[in-house]
Amino acid sequence: MLKMQRKYYMLKGKDKNMNDIRVEKRLFCAWNEEKEIKWLKNMAKQGWELDHAGFCEYQFKKTEKQDLNFSFDYRVLKKDEFDEYIRHFESCGWEYISSVASWHYFKSKVSETVYPDIYSENTSKIEKYKRLLVTLCLAIFPSIWAIVFNLTLLDEEFSLFTLIIVLLIVFMNTIIIYGIYRICRIIQQLRKNL
């Protein structure tokens, strides 16, 4: 995994010394949620609390060593729904951290949380993964159109650039299809445990 530390990082308009802020680059997929949670919990136990999550980038702040729970939700929200959504989880003891691409990150102290996850039952988890599944399925259609469009261009006149574009789109679709498969397997496992 890629790791990166920056000497200084701009945070809320103030320069923070690298001793207070740590930035890590990691790639986790939606079907590896447990692996991401385990890593974040381990970082908190080492005294690095997640302060912000971005695409493949995690910003930590130096704190005392803590035993924290982390949980994620995938939900596309309208601006007017966001505050109520956050309040709902806060009323259940979860603190909002940040959001990236409709993934919302929450944390809570293990000692203050009744459930180690924001979802206390599998039916709610299934709904979360169904929302993600819909997004992944919708992402496939424009990609298929792009492949067909670019293949018609290749048919008219060969272009190495067009061929590379088609191969990249096929590669991306392969990852999306694999993601759909893995999410379906997670849903299937959760249904078995109902």
Describe it for me?
- By secondary structure, the protein is of the alpha+beta class.
- The strands form three sheets. It has a three-stranded antiparallel beta sheet.
- It has four helices and eight strands.
- The two termini are 35 Å apart.
Strand content: 15-25%
Q: What oligomeric assembly is this protein in?
A: single chain
What is the straight-line distance between the termini? 35 Å
N-to-C order of helices and strands: EEEHEEEHEEHH
What structural class do helix, strand and pairing data support? alpha+beta
Round the Cα radius of gyration to an integer and report it: 20 Å
Query: Which stretches of 5+ consecutive residues score pLDDT under 50?
Result: 1-15
Sum up the overall morphology in one term. Answer: globular
Short summary:
This protein has 194 residues and is α+β, with helices and mostly antiparallel strands. The chain has 4 helices and 8 strands, in the order E-E-E-H-E-E-E-H-E-E-H-H.
